[in-house]
Amino acid sequence: MALKARATQEFVPIKEVRDGIVVLKDGDLRAIVLANSVNLSLKSEEEQRAVIFQFQGFLNTLDFPIQISVQSRKLDIRPYILTLENRMKAQTEPLLKLQTKEYIDFIKNFTDTVSIMTKNFFVVVPFTNTFLKEANENFLGKLFSRKSKQEKMAQEELDFEEKRSQLDERVGVIQQGLARCGIKSAQLGTEEVVEVFYKVFNPGETEGKIRTEQ
């Protein structure tokens, strides 16, 4: 019996990315906040304890769940090498051209023997409107089925804006809490969110082609 191939999208619970917000197929929303790292090893023991206690207090004040995700990827050094090679070609001084070539060879040999990794830290902020879900599954869900397509779209838009407003409040709470811990953060926009998920589902992308300078 032949098995029918299924598209990858069927296994991904994402319906769309809208205004930087991830809309899931079940109607839930997710916001992604990019946070920088703090090197505790460079701090004194007293400062380390202060940061840890502050972060612990921040987590204890949350009345909603969050997910902290760390994305580790091998640093793609090729764009940097390409830039150096272009500059070497444009260099007219023989000594500088030779030094640039030696530096390029050093960088290539170093990155071939040592895996240089980059890490990104993300905080996923969720919003689930249980009340609206239950209503839609029951009486209101039957009423919506009788509405026109335009009315349904208007209702969905209103529902999205209401949920996004509350999600934005949660994002503000997260960013304020991180700031008290000395951690800078920024909410990702639509393009950044799409890029994050693209890299998750295409981990070997760094082995692909790179753009050359025009």
The overall number of domains is 2
* Tally of contiguous helical segments: 7
* Portion in strands: 15-25%
Average per-residue pLDDT, rounded, comes to 82
Order of helices and strands: EEEHEHHEHHHEH
Radius of gyration (Å): 24 Å
Class computed from helices, strands and strand pairing: alpha+beta
Looking at how many chains there are and whether they match, the oligomeric state comes to single chain
Unreliable stretches (pLDDT < 50, length at least 5) are 207-214
How many strands, what sense, and barrel or not for the largest sheet? 6 strands, antiparallel
Overall geometry = extended
Tally the beta strands.
6
Termini gap = 52 Å
What does the model show?
This protein has 214 residues and is an alpha+beta fold. It folds into two domains: 8-74 and 120-205, no CATH class; 76-115. It has seven helices and six strands; from the N terminus they run E-E-E-H-E-H-H-E-H-H-H-E-H. Strands 1, 2, 3, 4, 5 and 6 form a six-stranded antiparallel sheet that branches. Strand 1 (14-18) and strand 2 form a beta hairpin. Helix 2 (78-90) packs antiparallel against helix 3. The longest helix is centred in the last third of the chain and has 32 residues, at 149-180. The protein is extended, with a radius of gyration of 24 Å. The termini are far apart.
